Amino acid sequence: MKRLVKKIMRSDAAHAVVCWIIAQYIRLVYYTSRWEHEGIEARDALIAEGKPFVIVLWHNRIAMMPYAWRPKKWPLTILASGHRDGQIVIRTMAHFNIKSIAGSSQRGGAAATKSILREMKAGSFIGITPDGPRGPRMRMKDGPVAIARLGKARITMVTFSVKRRILLNSWDRFCLPLPFNKGIFMWDTGFELPGKMDKEGAEAFRQHLEQALTDFTDEADRRMGHAPIPPAPEDKDNPSDKEAA
Q1: Rounded distance, CA 105 to CA 242, Å?
Q2: Residue 221 parent element (H or E)
Q3: Which residues pair with 101 in a beta bridge?
Q4: Helix H or strand E encompassing 69
Q5: 151, 148, 102: which is closest to 122 by C-alpha?
Q6: Over its length of 245 residues, how does the chain's per-residue pLDDT go in tens digits?
Q7: Which residues, 6+ apart, have CB-to-CB distance to 227 below 8 Å?
Q8: CA distances from 129 to 8, 139, 228 (A)
């Protein structure tokens, strides 16, 4: 059965259908639920001032992100991995007018970074899940800091949580929201990068940003009545630790 499923998923047509179904499910969850939006005034003020920013969120909070943003009003480009799972994200987000760039620091990273900087220069905002596509869960890679520095942008955090959810048995403990729910979207205007950073300073800033994003996501979960999801143990030797999605 597993072989059959894998064979079907290799079909481009089947892949497209799966992504369409996922997009419809996201719409169903959003429109049958009650949502609170927090922090959007400060976010919108930054946009109105024309200040570029890189948006970071943990990989397990991807599901409802199309409704945390208004892509028809403000262009958004996300960085996603180029493998098959990443293509699901790319195709699903396309249903919400969200552009994607495929790549990571291991596969096409330099080209992806150049594409991201071009999108930023053209006025697009950038979204990154800094622990994807394979983890470790809730451990930040260097990508957001490097891209924000090159693009002279600040880093902004976003997350969501819901009352009723299923946590999948995946590496990231993916948060699958259920329909007919109550949820919250939270934005934080985040951080300006220090003017000058050596290698040690950049690492300290990365660690600070990682903890801030975890604390921010934990707060959203507590607001919805859940205990926080713990980050995975740090694994500096993990070969996937350098990938971004």
Answers
A1: 6
A2: helix 199-223
A3: 79
A4: none
A5: 151
A6: 456 455 555 677 888 999 999 999 999 999 999 999 999 999 999 999 988 899 999 999 999 999 999 998 999 999 987 666 778 899 999 999 999 998 764 555 678 889 999 999 999 999 999 998 889 999 999 999 999 999 999 999 999 999 999 999 999 999 999 999 999 999 998 899 887 888 898 899 999 999 999 999 999 999 999 999 999 998 654 433 333 44
A7: 221
A8: 28, 10, 18
Residue 66 to residue 58: CA distance in whole angstroms:
14
Question: From CA 130, how far away is CA 17, in angstroms rounded?
Answer: 27
Task: Quote the DSSP letter at residue 52.
Answer: -
Instruction: Name which of 226, 55, 17 is nearest 156 in CA terms.
Output: 55
In which residue are the tokens 């859940």 written?
A: 226
| Residue 175 phi, psi dihedral angles, 5° rounding | -90, 105
What Cα–Cα distance (Å) separates residue 140 from each residue in 48, 194, 207? 29, 18, 8
Closest CA to 120 of 160, 79, 83: 79
CB of 84 closer than 8 Å to CB of 107: no
Q: Which residues pair with 102 in a beta bridge?
A: 80
Q: Which residues contact 237 (CB under 8 A, 6 or more apart)?
A: none
What are the residues whose beta carbons fall under 8 Å from the beta carbon of 140, sequence distance 6 or more?
Answer: 56, 130, 131, 206, 207, 209, 210, 213
